[in-house]
Amino acid sequence: MTEYVHTAAAQRLIVALDYPNVEQARHLIDTLQGIPCYIKVGMQLFYAAGPEFVRELKEKGYSVFLDLKMHDIPNTVKGGAHSITRLGVDMFNVHAAGGREMMKAAVAGMEQALSEDKALTRPLLIAVTQLTSTSQQTMNEDIGIPGSVEDTVVRYARLAYECGLDGVVSSPLEGPAIKAACGSSFVTVTPGVRPAGAEVADQTRIMTPGRAIAAGNDYLVVGRPITAAIDPRKAAEQIIEEMNQYVND
Ligand SMILES: O=c1ccn([C@@H]2O[C@H](COP(=O)(O)O)[C@@H](O)[C@H]2O)c(=O)[nH]1
Predict the structure, then answer these.
(1) Is 79 exposed, middle or buried (0-12, 13-18, 19+ CB in 10 A)?
(2) Which SUPFAM superfamilies match (predicted)?
(3) Is the ipTM of this complex over 0.85?
(4) From the CB of 222, is ligand 1 less than 6 Å away?
């Protein structure tokens, strides 16, 4: 089989399968066949389809980000991290707002699963900082966190780093500040990506695919600009081409 033309860029695109059922999700997967992108399964699809669909994606050879954003007491998150790691996903997440003990418990749950089953590969465990739909005003006035979004995101990133996590979810705008604070190998996974002219919808902290990669972010999460496009494959390929201009193969 010939290798996909922009493999290095495609492997840094995470396509969000935000669908209500497996039929629609499978249809998109078929449409994207041959593109070596990451696939993200979030709450909508996981609550409808469960772990079986995650296993199906793994059997098809995809790298899978299970985006369940755990945020609960440490003991519960430890158990959740254990179960998720046993599923064999490549990336999963918790909310940094759950705090130090909760994030350490997530690491412990993951490590327990890895010690029980040596066939498992260690997933990336990342922490959500401030949702990309959250504006400066919302964070200050509704949520009640003072200061700038960037400072809050970096504070959460530092805490996640101290707890042994591999990286964070943030908007692409905060990527450079996170890397400066936590080091270049601390992974940034960035939703809030919109090609020029695309509908912004509920996202508030956004960047184009090219600028997000040029800013040094590791993975770009893209949902509706692909899933809601008239031609999703073409939309994905255009995004990958734009990313590719800033990726060193
Ligand atoms: O801060 C966050 C954390 C997660 N997401 C998820 O990423 C995708 C983005 O989808 P779009 O359609 O491209 O907006 C979606 O699955 C979110 O749950 C996020 O947007 N922001």
Answers:
(1) middle
(2) Ribulose-phoshate binding barrel (SSF51366)
(3) yes
(4) yes
